[in-house]
Amino acid sequence: MDWGLPAVLRIIGVSGVVVWSGFLIWRQTRFEFDQEKVLSLIVSLGWWFAAGSIAGRYLISRDFGWWVWGGIILSGWTLRRWCRINQWDFWEWFDLVAGVYLGAGVLASLILGLGNWYYALVFASGWVIAGWTARNYRKIRWYKSGKPGMVGLVSLMWSAAGIIVVALLKPGNIYWVGLSPEQWISAWILVAAGVTIYLRSGRQAEGNINVWQKLKKAKWRG
């Protein structure tokens, strides 16, 4: 839904969303991390998200606008690099930033009219699911390891699934083998995030141990 906001108001609104997102990240990390480094990271994430979104849109559609996966990919790379340099736990930061991004996505979608209300619906429902996951994922019996990263990965999966559905509702996309670029990348991210959750769940290690024990028993009996 496009609210017909003037360009100046949209710029002011998006700027407010960026500042609000940065404030949320800073507020949740100000006692555990160096504040100067956190503020530098926040600026870098905002810059690379904007650059990736605009560049990605131009590469795919040859026009100027926003393409959310371009922003997510570049800002994710920035976060990974920053955590490695400063020896921070990437997965803890990933959980935090993913939740903030979803909340920011709701507001930005409404302000910009990013192809109507469905993006806001995807991000809003994802934000609720991310909140539930953050409170409960360590209680899930299937996720034996309890490692951080579950919130961010679930957020990615939900966003990817939602964007696939939204792309089906938007006419005029460039299609290849029946899927738009958004759908192809979303499908890849959906599968990659699901596989990563499985690998971090601890079930693979448990399965490998069980297989090893069975092989040892079979060898001993032989």
Task: Explain the overall architecture.
By secondary structure, this protein is an all-alpha fold. The chain has one domain (7-206). 77% of the residues lie in helices and 0% in strands. It is built from 8 helices and no strands. It is globular and about 45 Å long.
Compact summary:
The chain has 222 residues and is mainly α. The chain has one domain. Helices cover 77% and strands 0% of the residues.
Features:
222 residues; mainly alpha; 77% helix; globular
Mean pLDDT: 78
- Report how far apart the termini are: 70 Å
Can you summarize the main beta sheet? none
- Count of the separate structural domains: 1
How many DSSP E strands?
0
The percent range for helix content is over 70%
Shape: globular
Low-confidence stretches: 207-216
Number of helices: 8
Beta content:
under 5%
User: How would you spell out the order of helices and strands?
Assistant: HHHHHHHH
Task: Please identify the structural class as seen in this structure.
Answer: mainly alpha
Radius of gyration: 20 Å
The protein's oligomeric status is: single chain
List the helices and strands and how they pair.
Elements: H1 7-29, H2 35-61, H3 68-86, H4 90-112, H5 117-136, H6 150-169, H7 181-200, H8 203-221
